[in-house]
Amino acid sequence: MIVSTYSIVACDLDASQWGVAVESKFLSVGSIVPWAEPGVGAVATQAYANPRFGPDGLALLREGRSADEVVHELIARDDGRNERQVGVVDANGNAAAHTGSECIDWAGHRTGPCYAAQGNILVGADTVDALATTFEQTTGRDLASRLVDCLAAAQRAGGDSRGQQSAALLLVERDGGYAGLTDVVLDLRVDDHPQPIEELRRLHALHTRLFGKTPREQWLPLTGDLGTEVEGRLARLGHPTLRSWAGVENLEERLGADDEDAIDPFVLEVLRESS
Fold first, then answer.
1. Of 32, 30, 15, nearest to 176 (Cα)?
2. Which of 40, 186, 213, 232 is 20 to 30 A from 34 in CA distance terms?
3. Cα 242–188–130 angle (5° rounding)?
């Protein structure tokens, strides 16, 4: 079965993040296409996808190979190379891609600093161009939001000629995930949905709500009127402490060790909405 797909593999070197965003008329595309490892790089494998390109590509990147060297070696060792499509970004932000001569039209790719954009069975080249242009024009924003916006722009430009079904967003950063104990910042998958990109955006917004971080200098001291307000709202909700309430709302990741002294403005907003 063909993973008729458009995807973007990218990194933000300042944030030390690598990621892949993908959409396809294919069930659970996130289980096959995206692969990434912090400080190493990221890979997207699609068309008549060779899933081994993911782990094998990361292994080559881990050895210090460049994106171009990795793509060349993956393709050279694969007898099905003419039906494969792959994009790679390495630890230094170098990018490379391959579109086999037998990939179904429209198929092609674009690369630039810190990204590789590729697609097959597309309405036309505008889809890949939209991936690339959107990434280039959103420098300075967080990588996850940029990648979702790239998918949305590509869909507006034509997308997969067979329609939509699934989408995924994978983002990694060393110790950047849950409780600082995992490298996976985001692994969001929409496996079967009539509007998978919109659903992926909703999931990303929910993830940001629960696990996002407001810079500590922007937190509000729980003194004076604000401290009294928070205590009153917690009492009305039947919670003795902020941490007790946050645990029910799955917001404990947005609390600090000294959460009795200051509060994340976003947490305060949710508390006010709840009480």
1. 15
2. 213
3. 125
